[in-house]
Design brief:
The chain is mainly alpha-helical. It contains eight helices and five strands; from the N terminus they run βααβααβββαααα.
């Protein structure tokens, strides 16, 4: 496992691990463990729409790639507790065809999973916020022209700005702070797109 990025995220590079995570139940399990902390298969089952035995199988599959691990903080040895190996993950698209296909599968699953997030926020979260926090929420659709190196530098700069907040521990939370989810889609255009000219 590599954590060599500003967020301390788990870095996935192997095509087999990309394919393993490109499954809706596994992606949901990892997200739940990252968000809510350690849990058992029985506790996770209702949140991912699978039986505890199916959840256990998926967790063992994720563990084989190091994405989840056993949690040793459980007070009872009767049930197996799991935890996410890191608070987030990221992946690099490999150069070979197999790796590119696996990365495409994972991207497709992630896009499908997160497509409803803004609408869910609008329906359930936004009405419960005060006007200050409502005013800070937003969406941007900005198009610009850059080289691949410039886009990489831009992504690194944004991550550098966010990293202190992403890595902030619960005890370091200042008064008035709250959790914020930032969805960031970076969607390069092909050369034949008019916007790319």
């Amino acid at each position: 496992m590599s954590l060599k990025n500003p967020y301390g995220d788990f870095e996935i590079t192997e095509p087999q691990a990309l394919r393993a995570l490109a499954h809706p139940v596994r992606l949901a399990l990892l997200e739940r463990l990252q968000k809510d902390g350690p849990a058992t298969a029985t506790q996770l089952a209702p949140h991912v729409g699978a039986t505890p035995s199916v959840v256990s199988w998926h967790l063992r599959h994720l563990a084989s790639f190091g994405l989840v691990t056993d949690w040793d903080g459980a007070t009872s040895k009767r049930e197996r507790w799991w935890q996410a190996a890191a608070r987030g993950f990221r992946f690099t698209v490999p150069d070979d065809a197999e790796g590119q296909d696996a990365a495409r599968q994972l991207r497709a699953e992630m896009f499908a999973r997160y497509a409803e997030a803004p609408q869910q926020w609008l329906l359930y979260d936004e009405p419960r916020l005060d006007t200050e926090w409502q005013g800070l929420a937003g969406i941007a659709d900005t198009q610009f022209v850059v080289t691949a190196d410039e886009l990489s530098e831009l992504r690194d700069a944004i991550e550098g700005l966010l990293a202190p907040y992403v890595r902030r521990k619960g005890g370091e939370r200042p008064d008035g702070a709250r959790a914020v989810r930032m969805l960031n889609y970076t969607l390069p255009k092909p050369d034949d797109d008019p916007a790319a000219s």
